[in-house]
Amino acid sequence: MSAGGRTIVNEYSATKRRAVDDFWTTQAPCTHCLQLYDSDEALLDALEGFIATGIRQGDAIVVIATPSHRLELDRRLAYAGFDPAAAAERGQYLPLDAAELLARFTDNGVPDEARFRCVIDGLLLRARKHYPTVRAFGEMVGLLWADGHYASTARLEEMWSRVCHDNNLALFCAYPRAGFDAAPAFAAQIEAAHSQACPF
């Protein structure tokens, strides 16, 4: 009975992995995708698929995330047969700390667009040195929202949308679902800023 249970779980996991991979493979190069997640596992399942698909397609990958999520993502990628350290060494994988990067262009939770563009344009330039197509994941918006900077979060999403449009960038943003309805008007603005919703 327990062995059968494990088989069912394994089959479900394989099915879900294929669905996640199929979703990211069919996304347009210029996409601003939003995920509202209920657990870190749901976030990391989607993020692993987003990154793994990019590596397989020869994209450069920019990951702007919390330390715990970067660590778990690297563990998952290694388990799936990728080498995050080698990808970083060849310039294909750029893992960055979300809080540190956010501090470079915000004051008291308010983003400055000129400084933001300077920071992000520099990252994209690095990423495109050897890889013309770039995809990025960002948790900076999630950090702003968690700190109660709702208007600033909506503004940052609009700034990201302009970056996506100007650079033909695929961008994946994620927020914990818990607390996302704390400011409904700004949550609606954030949803409207995205071109796609992640179904996972």
The CATH class label is: Alpha Beta
Q: Which class of secondary structure composition applies to the elements? A: alpha/beta
Extended strand count: 8
Overall shape: it is globular
CATH topology: Rossmann fold
Helix content: 55-70%
- In total, the number of domains comes to 1
Largest sheet: 6 strands, parallel
pLDDT averaged over residues: 92
What name goes with the CATH superfamily? P-loop containing nucleotide triphosphate hydrolases
Query: In sequence order, what are the helices and strands, one letter per element?
Result: HEHEHHEHEEHEHHEHE
Low-confidence blocks of residues: 1-12
Q: What is the rounded distance between the termini?
A: 29 Å
As a percent range, the share of strand residues is: 15-25%
C-alpha Rg, in Å? 17 Å
CATH architecture: 3-Layer(aba) Sandwich
Number of helices: 9
Protein name: MEDS domain-containing protein
Pfam families: MEDS
Domain MEDS: 31-183
Organism: Pseudoduganella plicata
Question: Any overview of this molecule?
Answer:
The protein has 200 residues and is of the alpha/beta class. It has a single domain (2-197), classed as P-loop containing nucleotide triphosphate hydrolases (Rossmann fold), CATH 3.40.50. The protein is built from 9 helices and 8 strands. It has helices at 2-25, 40-57, 67-79, 84-89, 98-103, 113-127, 140-146, 150-167, 184-193, and strands spanning 31-37, 60-65, 93-97, 106-107, 110-111, 134-138, 170-176, 196-197. The strands form 2 sheets. Strands 3-2-6-7-1-8 form a 6-stranded parallel β-sheet, with helices on both faces. A two-stranded antiparallel sheet has the order 4-5. Helix 7 packs antiparallel against helix 8 (150-167). The longest helix is centred in the N-terminal third of the chain and has 24 residues, at 2-25. Mean pLDDT is 92; it is low at 1-12. It holds the Pfam family MEDS. This is MEDS domain-containing protein.
